[in-house]
Amino acid sequence: MSGSSPGPRPKNGHRLKLRYLGVRKNDAWLRTRCASMNLRTLVNSGLTRENGVWALA
User: Fold this and answer.
1) How confident is the model at residue 32 (pLDDT cuts 50, 70, 90)?
2) pTM of the prediction?
3) How many angstroms separate the Cα of 3 from the Cα of each of 6, 12, 19?
4) What sign results for the dihedral spanned by CA atoms 21, 25, 31, 33?
5) Phi-psi category of 25—alpha, beta or left, where left has phi over 0 and alpha has psi -120 to 50?
6) Beta strands in the chain (DSSP E)
7) Is 15 left (phi over 0), alpha (psi -120 to 50) or beta?
8) Cβ distance 43 to 54 under 8 Å?
9) How far apart are CA 43 and CA 56, in angstroms?
10) Residues contacting 30, CB < 8 A, separation 6+
11) pLDDT tens digits for range 38-56
C-alpha cells in the first residue's frame, strides 16, 4: 500500500480528520475523545456514582 500512512482508526471506510495542526494537540484531543467514549460505554453499562464511589449496577 503505497501512499497510505498510519492514523486514526477508519470510520465508515474513511480516516478521521485531525482537529489540530501539530502532533501534541492532536494526541491530546484523541486521548480525550477515547476517554469520553469509554466513559459513555461504562455509563451505558450501568456505571453509577454513589457517595463518592463508582460502582457497576
Assistant:
1) very high
2) 0.57
3) 10, 20, 21
4) negative
5) alpha
6) 47-50, 53-56
7) beta
8) no
9) 9
10) 8
11) 999 999 999 999 899 989 8
48 in Cβ contact with 55 (< 8 Å)? yes
12's grid cell: 465508515
| Residue bearing cell 484531543 | 29
Are 49 and 39 in contact, with CB atoms under 8 Å apart? no
Residue type, 35: A
Lowest mean pLDDT of 3-7, 15-19, 30-34, name the range. Answer: 3-7
